[in-house]
């Protein structure tokens, strides 16, 4: 989700642009081939692997410097400068200010356009985001859009399949083996606030990253050194790794309640350390939604901040994905997990695979082993007679008979569990033996809400039409 320094971008396949685009920046993905991903992986060779012999040549020294010097300043400074309570409070407050510059600004406003912001709010978020020192809006959004478009592939700049630490910081410290996939940011090139920040980015990161937090502490309560060490360096280190966790922790810890096709996951711990960006599975499914957490009790201060800005007239057009579609995503995953549970169970034999037996043949074969008809199915109860809670005699007296009425309430209205267990004893279908009105009882309760794949829906559970009378039942 975040980074420190700008790196190279992908070069799309070029073809002549339409005339209407001649006067403005052409979208980067305007003329890419339809098989862009496969084409790119085939035609653009990655850099050679990093080895013990070349690793020092493959480091991005600017990013490495920022990610090591800042925490070093914070650690050494903390050994010599006492932390005052005022500075501690200010450091936490400024952490949220600059963090929201990334989450509410860079991420939800500019990368995903999930709401509209007034010019004052845009300038404030652009300045605050610069204080997080993670690259300009335009560059950061280009990388993040590529991440969403090519999630978990070689064209994803922070591909989670390459490991937790690669997604967290590795992709910034080591030169990328492959250029990130093409992603259009021509809309941001037209935004005057984005252009302003991009032009003055160096001055903004110095001012918002260190001078402002130091000046507030210095002018406010005379703690210039503490402002620099704690509200500046230490706070910056926390902001970095907080937002980096959206690339790493949010793809590693938690569950996938909306879709498990890719690695993004939801977890409250990730939300707590990322200012609300921890419900990442939802976000990857519905990236245009201004929310990350959809339940009132889920931690998402970024959502609350945007909502408050709307109430103050600073934000508008907050995008929300249709509730019906969100619930479809949840239902899909619930059904998938139920299907996995279902596939681990053994159910009654397929009706279409059972032999169809006449009443006369059933009675004849009942003299050789204990067979009972219930609901049109012939059951072999030889392994159950001594286990029957009602006693052996109730089973014995119905051998060779139709016990449907007795089973379905005549003697005892059996439970769903009993019905399910009985279905496992089916060995045949009585020809013409299903009584009128018992159609709903021919399917065991455990299978009435069976989870079926789309290609299974046409088969159904119709009675067998095959005729296999005689000794086939005992075969």
From TrEMBL:
Homology family: Belongs to the fatty acid desaturase type 1 family.
Transmembrane annotation, as ranges? 61-81, 88-109, 200-221
Principal cellular location given in the protein's record: membrane
Q: Which SUPFAM superfamilies does UniProt cross-reference here?
A: Cytochrome b5-like heme/steroid binding domain
Record's catalysed reaction(s): octadecanoyl-CoA + 2 Fe(II)-[cytochrome b5] + O2 + 2 H(+) = (9Z)-octadecenoyl-CoA + 2 Fe(III)-[cytochrome b5] + 2 H2O
EC code: 1.14.19.1
Name the needed cofactors: Fe(2+)
Q: Its membrane topology, per UniProt?
A: Multi-pass membrane protein
Q: Mind listing the UniProt keywords for this protein, alphabetically?
A: Electron transport, Fatty acid biosynthesis, Fatty acid metabolism, Heme, Iron, Lipid biosynthesis, Lipid metabolism, Membrane, Metal-binding, Oxidoreductase, Transmembrane, Transmembrane helix, Transport
Superkingdom of origin organism? Eukaryota
Location(s) in or outside the cell? Membrane
UniProt domain Cytochrome b5 heme-binding: residue ranges:
372-431
Q: What class of enzyme is it?
A: oxidoreductase
Q: Name one GO cellular component term.
A: endoplasmic reticulum membrane
Q: SMART domains of this UniProt entry? A: Cyt-b5 (SM01117)
| Protein name as catalogued | Acyl-CoA desaturase
The free-text function statement in the UniProt record for this protein reads:
Stearoyl-CoA desaturase that utilizes O(2) and electrons from reduced cytochrome b5 to introduce the first double bond into saturated fatty acyl-CoA substrates.
Task: List, alphabetically, the InterPro entries matched.
Answer: Acyl-CoA_deSatase_haem/ster-bd (IPR009160), Acyl-CoA_DS (IPR015876), Cyt_B5-like_heme/steroid-bd (IPR001199), Cyt_B5-like_heme/steroid_sf (IPR036400), Cyt_B5_heme-BS (IPR018506), FA_desaturase_dom (IPR005804), FADS-1_CS (IPR001522)
**Originating species:** Postia placenta MAD-698-R-SB12
Note on cofactor: Expected to bind 2 Fe(2+) ions per subunit.
Q: Which PANTHER family match?
A: ACYL-COA DESATURASE, DESATURASE 1, ISOFORM A-RELATED
Entry keyword annotation includes Amino-acid biosynthesis: no
Q: Name one GO molecular function term.
A: heme binding
One Gene Ontology term from the biological process aspect of the record: unsaturated fatty acid biosynthetic process
């Amino acid at each position: 989700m975040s980074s420190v320094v700008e790196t190279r971008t992908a070069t799309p396949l070029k073809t002549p642009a339409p005339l209407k685009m001649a006067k403005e920046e052409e979208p980067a993905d305007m003329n890419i081939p339809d098989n862009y991903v496969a084409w790119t992986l085939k035609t653009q060779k990655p850099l050679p692997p990093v080895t013990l012999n070349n690793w020092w040549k493959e480091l991005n020294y600017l990013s490495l410097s920022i990610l090591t010097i800042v925490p070093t300043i914070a650690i050494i400074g903390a050994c010599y400068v006492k932390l005052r309570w005022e500075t501690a409070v200010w450091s936490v407050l400024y952490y949220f200010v600059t963090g929201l510059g990334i989450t509410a600004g860079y991420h939800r406003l500019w990368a995903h356009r999930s709401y509209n912001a007034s010019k004052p709010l845009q300038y404030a978020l652009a300045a605050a985001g610069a204080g997080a020192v993670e690259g300009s809006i335009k560059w950061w959004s280009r990388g993040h859009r590529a991440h969403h478009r090519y999630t978990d592939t070689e064209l994803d700049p922070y591909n989670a399949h390459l490991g937790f630490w690669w997604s967290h910081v590795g992709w910034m410290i080591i030169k990328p083996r492959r250029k990130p996939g093409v992603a259009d940011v021509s809309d941001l090139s037209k935004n005057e606030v984005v252009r302003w920040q991009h032009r003055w980015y160096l001055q903004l990161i110095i001012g918002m990253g260190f001078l402002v937090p130091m000046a507030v502490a210095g002018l406010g309560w005379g703690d210039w050194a503490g402002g620099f060490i704690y509200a500046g360096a230490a706070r910056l280190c926390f902001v970095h790794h907080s937002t980096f966790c959206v690339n790493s922790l949010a793809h590693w810890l938690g569950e996938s309640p909306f879709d498990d096709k890719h690695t993004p996951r939801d977890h409250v711990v990730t939300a707590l350390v990322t200012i609300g960006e921890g419900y990442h599975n939802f976000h990857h499914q519905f990236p245009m939604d201004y929310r990350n957490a959809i339940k009132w009790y889920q931690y998402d201060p970024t959502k609350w901040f945007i909502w408050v800005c709307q109430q103050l007239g600073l934000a508008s057009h907050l995008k929300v994905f249709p509730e019906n579609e969100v619930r479809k995503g949840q239902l899909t995953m619930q059904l998938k997990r139920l299907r996995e549970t279902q596939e681990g169970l053994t159910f009654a034999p397929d009706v279409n695979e059972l032999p169809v037996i006449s009443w006369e043949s059933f009675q004849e074969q009942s003299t050789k082993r204990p067979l009972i008809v219930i609901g049109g199915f012939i059951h072999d109860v030889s392994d159950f007679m001594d286990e029957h809670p009602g006693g052996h005699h109730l089973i014995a007296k119905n051998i060779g008979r139709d016990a449907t009425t007795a089973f379905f309430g005549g003697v005892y209205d059996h439970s769903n569990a009993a019905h399910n267990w009985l279905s496992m004893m089916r060995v045949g279908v009585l020809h013409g033996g299903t009584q009128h009105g018992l159609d709903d009882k021919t399917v065991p309760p455990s299978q009435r809400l069976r989870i079926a794949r789309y290609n299974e829906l046409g088969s159904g559970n119709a009675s067998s039409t095959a005729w296999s009378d005689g000794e086939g039942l005992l075969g």
